[in-house]
Amino acid sequence: MGEGALIVRLGTRHGKDNIENNNYINRFTLEKDLRDARENKDETVVEFLSDVISKVKATDVNEEICIVLIDNSGGSCCVIPRDDPAKRIAAMMDGL
Predict the structure, then answer these.
(1) What is the mean predicted confidence (pLDDT) over 39-67?
(2) Whose CA, among 18, 25, 68, 84, lies 20 to 30 Å from 10?
(3) What pLDDT, on the 0 to 100 scale, is given for residue 15?
(4) Where are the domains of the chain?
């Protein structure tokens, strides 16, 4: 599969009977989508995909997972550790 990100859809079905909740997108496809967004002058998508691609490139695939979270209001991208991903969240909660 190569470098890429796991996509997790958090949004509602909007009347669709069948929707994939999770899938993987590789860096090649992300870069193609970025070119298409640039050609269509869609700055919101350009900004989002640029962020995702930079995180994919920086991800140490042996230690981390890049995840794209999509809901009805948009998307975000994060990198979490493969081992004990909740550890990072616990550390953030302790900081609060």
Answers:
(1) 95
(2) 84
(3) 62
(4) 4-95
